[in-house]
């Protein structure tokens, strides 16, 4: 752009852009095959969004409350099993064991043991956790070789 030229009129450019956009949309709407393809595409996107919402809400619900569409009922899957008895197959999984995070007394004991170990290490080093005396170490620079 030469400095003597006037800057572009952005209002005029925006108006031209919208006019062209409206012409393109009107032309597409007048073509039946394209209009139908666009309608099918929008319907597919809507179905996909609905499926996502359904899956997301099912993931938030407890497994016992999830409704799977078109899934056979438990009695249809195992027709020869009398009501009240268990279905054949693997046994259900056992409940999760209580991990160490569910034992606050054990955690307290482990922390106390760690504190004792740190105190022993500090006393062997001859200090009260003060820090290292002397000059600070110089930082190493890493050499990067190209090719």
From TrEMBL:
<feature type="compositionally biased region" description="Basic and acidic residues">
    <location>
        <begin position="102"/>
        <end position="119"/>
    </location>
</feature>
<feature type="compositionally biased region" description="Basic residues">
    <location>
        <begin position="136"/>
        <end position="147"/>
    </location>
</feature>
<protein>
    <submittedName>
        <fullName>Uncharacterized protein</fullName>
    </submittedName>
</protein>
<feature type="compositionally biased region" description="Low complexity">
    <location>
        <begin position="83"/>
        <end position="100"/>
    </location>
</feature>
<feature type="region of interest" description="Disordered">
    <location>
        <begin position="60"/>
        <end position="147"/>
    </location>
</feature>
